[in-house]
């Protein structure tokens, strides 16, 4: 599941054109991208 979460995080970061990280099972994307991701 960790690899899938990392892969999803990578796709979301590319979509937003932003950095981010996976911490404790949560994807964090830098900046305010809620409208784009929800």
TrEMBL record:
InterPro entries: SUI1, SUI1_dom_sf
One Pfam family hit: SUI1
SUI1 domain: residues covered: 4-37
SUPFAM superfamilies named among the record's database cross-references: eIF1-like (SSF55159)
Transmembrane portions of the chain: none
Example of a GO MF term: translation initiation factor activity
Protein name as it appears in the record: SUI1 domain-containing protein
Lineage of source species: unclassified sequences, metagenomes, ecological metagenomes
